[in-house]
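Table S2 (text version). Query chain:
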Amino acid sequence: MTPASGPPCTKAAIAQGLGVPTANVQNKYCEDGWAGAEFLEANEQDEAAGLLQAEGDAWVNDNRQSCGTPQIPEYIQKRYCEVS
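Corresponding structure-token output:
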């Protein structure tokens, strides 16, 4: 649900923002210029959750620094921020 002017909400675009292979992105969700993703780290063994922010036509890894702030959509907050 990213605006048409933002980056595409695809596994490939999100993987690029996270710096992992596309195949490592297990699921993703985009809304209001934010994206959350569950993915395998580059070692393909450790699972992680990521938060990305739209910047132009690309996703930029926020390293979950914005978790807990009011600008994060509720679903992304619950699914991708409130995990260990």
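Notes on Table S2: The chain has a mean pLDDT of 92. The longest helix spans residues 11-18.
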